[in-house]
Design brief:
Elements (H helix, E strand, L loop, with lengths): L1 E4 L16 H14 L3 E4 L12 H15 L3 E3 L9 H8 L7 E5 L5 H10 L3 E6 L2 H9 L8 E4 L6 H18 L5 E3 L6 H10 L3 E4 L16 H13 L1
Parallel strand pairs: 1-2, 1-8, 2-3, 3-4, 4-5, 5-6, 6-7, 7-8
Length: 236
């Protein structure tokens, strides 16, 4: 499965096609679905274009995008969007429309975030950036209820990122965490980690949140170009 990550914290200064509004996100999601994506991940934006986890915005955006593309839609609840842990949980407890959300297990509040989402009937992706994060995930008591584990090293150095992925997968195996895994990288490490994941039969993620060009550095017009290229690597 290839998940399309439509925007992240990107701006139009970085690429003119970065989707911001619900309508733009829906159009990109439709194009990505046609290109072969199996799920959508996005960062909801308010009227000013700023990232938000406000339930009124999140519920509307998730509904509009899912209705348009027919794929499961996940919304980021990263601490970087709402650093205040109390306000973050208050917002998550009012989410209704997302199919899944993220819990960052490099964040001490990850277990509370996961529990809040699960209490709303929203699936959870457990994100780990280092092998050390696996210990917190294993100890949370909810690992077997996760939709998937997201293996996402933060370094853009390809060798270091691949090495960290190896350590993370080994830690997950040792902890007996058997839920599906999705591996992806960022920047220069994005394409190597995606190709590695697909070659191993794991899910991956591609989209403007992680990379703005094809593996050869060629420009793209939208997220669907990235998804189509990733799908082509599966065929090859």
């Amino acid at each position: 499965m290839i998940k399309a990550a439509l925007n992240g914290g990107r701006t139009r200064d970085e690429h003119p096609a970065v989707p911001i509004t619900a309508a733009e996100l829906a159009a990109e999601a439709v194009a990505c679905a046609a290109a072969g994506a199996g799920a959508i991940h996005l960062h909801a934006r308010d009227v000013s274009g700023a990232e938000t986890i406000d339930p009124a915005v999140v519920n509307e955006v998730a509904r509009v995008v899912r209705d348009a593309c027919g794929l499961p839609v996940g919304i980021s609840s990263s601490p970087s969007i709402e650093p205040d842990a109390v306000r973050r949980l208050e917002s998550l407890r009012e989410w209704r429309e997302p199919d899944f959300g993220s819990a960052m297990f490099n964040d001490p509040g990850a277990t509370s975030v996961a529990a809040a989402l699960l209490s709303r009937g929203i699936d959870v992706e457990a994100a780990v950036v280092t092998a050390g994060d696996v210990e917190r995930l294993a100890a949370c008591g909810l690992a077997d209820r996760m939709l998937r584990v997201i293996v996402e090293p933060e370094t853009e150095n390809v060798e270091e990122a691949l090495a960290e992925c190896g350590l993370i997968h080994a830690a997950l195996d040792a902890a007996g965490i058997a839920v599906p895994r999705l591996q992806h990288g960022m920047g220069a490490a994005c394409w190597p980690l995606a190709v590695d994941a697909l070659a191993r039969g794991w899910d991956t993620r591609i989209g403007f949140e992680d990379v703005l060009v094809l593996s050869d550095g060629s420009a793209v017009t939208g997220n669907a170009d990235l998804v189509a290229a990733a799908m082509a690597s599966v065929v090859l």
